[in-house]
Amino acid sequence: MKSNDLAGALRNNLGESIVLVEHCNQLTLTLPAEVLLMTCQTLKDNVSFAFDQLMDVCGVDYLDYGASEWSTKHATNRGFSRAVEPMGAEHPSTWTGPRFAVVYHLLSIQHNHRLRLRVFVPEDRMMVDSLVPLWPSANWFEREAFDLYGILFSGHPDLRRLLTDYGFIGHPFRKDFPMIGEVEMRYDAAEGRCVYEPVSILPRTLVPKVIRDSNRYLQTEGEG
Questions:
Q1: What are the residue ranges spanned by the domains of the chain?
Q2: Which helix (H) or strand (E) covers residue 208, if one does?
Q3: Contact, 211 vs 98, CB < 8 A?
Q4: Class of domain 3-62+97-177
């Protein structure tokens, strides 16, 4: 099934009001959180779609989406020349939508087509329905999104952190999470256990050093 045929089938079954965008020959369907479970049930059971596999679930943080505060277009020929200090919002963010979203990637083996779903979640109630009852593969994917972004999945059978430690504070894939973290862990021999303490690393910007002093860039007499 071609993307145009899939788009037409989606509009016929889900209504003309759906937000459907095609990019890089793949369709993205944006829908409200309250109809996610019902829509996914249709996408799985309707023979026109037959999306029998959920390939991936991930969170997205749109904080400062599209903004750029580093000068990266030009470099001097003397070495360290960019991203040393912030230069202000060179390209400020124009994003006006909700900050967080959950993105799903579906695959239909029968029809050999793919579909991306996007569901925005408000910051004051970061919760969507779990898709584990439809696709068991959603189990660990949703736990990962909960761990890294703090998004809750209603109806999940075992929503616990997956990648971080039990006592981890915060959600490390949020864009306002500090690069050095909030706490660090070490083994305390006196207490005979692991303890958490404020991080001792000084915050700094790590950037690659651009080397421009090279014979490849030098012109000899008679050239130019």
A1: 3-62+97-177
A2: none
A3: no
A4: alpha beta
CA dist 160 and 148 (Å) reads 11
Closest to 51 in 3D by CA, of 127, 172, 135, 139 = 135
pLDDT digits (tens, 9 = 90+) for 43-87: 999 999 999 999 999 999 999 887 766 555 555 554 444 444 555
Write out the two tokens for 52: 């029998």
Q: Sheet harboring 113-121: ordered strands across?
A: 19-23, 26-30, 113-121, 100-108, 53-61
| 138 within 8 A of 150, measured Cβ to Cβ | no
- From residue 47, alpha-carbon distances to 51, 54, 65, 168 in Å are 9, 16, 37, 44
pTM to 2 decimals? 0.77
Angle, CA 54 vertex, CA 53 and CA 58 arms, to 5°: 165
Contact 83, 70 (CB under 8 A): yes
